[in-house]
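Sequence, structure tokens passed on for absentees:
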Amino acid sequence: MNRMKTVIKGIMVKVIGLSLFHLLAFAPLSVNAQNADLQKAVARYKKTTTVTAAATKTSHKDAIAKDVVTKGTLTMKKPSEVGIVIDGGKDQLLMKGSEFTMVVKGKSHKTSSQKNPQFATFQAVFEYILKGGEGDLSKYSDLAVTKQGNNIVLTITPQADSKKAQRRMLFSSFVLTIDKSTSELKTLRMNERGGYTEYTFTGHKFN
């Protein structure tokens, strides 16, 4: 009887050991796979200086039944420039290094990723893309990378030190969608209280 208990106990130890081994061995692979997918998706940018595309801006407010849709252009340029210009410049989202400019209905607002940390990971992600996957995004705890069909989805959810700081945030999250096959940035969505702004990009040109 004691011998049987000893045998059973030994089997259980082996089973638990193997289970832990598999958990430890395979859990990191999913992270590595995501990183590999993202690097592959943006590798085209290594040999690219400038990317341009047509942009469609959709402004949605929960309290308003009809969305506002306007047209414009996207320009991405190494090493760290992103420009979305809508409606002849009346609405703009510009990033030049750590400096950010938003033009809303012709009125300009400026900030930086140093003054406004919610844009720090946003800046890092676009620089990572423009470098063709060079760098390390794993240190950004507010960034999640997932695969949805043929798309790589990057979700940035800025963290605040306090509720007051959180209320001051312009956006609750940023969501970028990149086509894994073509390396094209398909959409950029910026979620905010009571609505969102989404840019859809088509007709990309890599130069």
Observations:
- Confidence is low (pLDDT under 50) at residues 4-8, 10-31.
- The first helix runs from residue 2 to 42.
- The CA atoms of residues 11 and 17 lie 10 Å apart.
- The chain has one domain: 3-206.
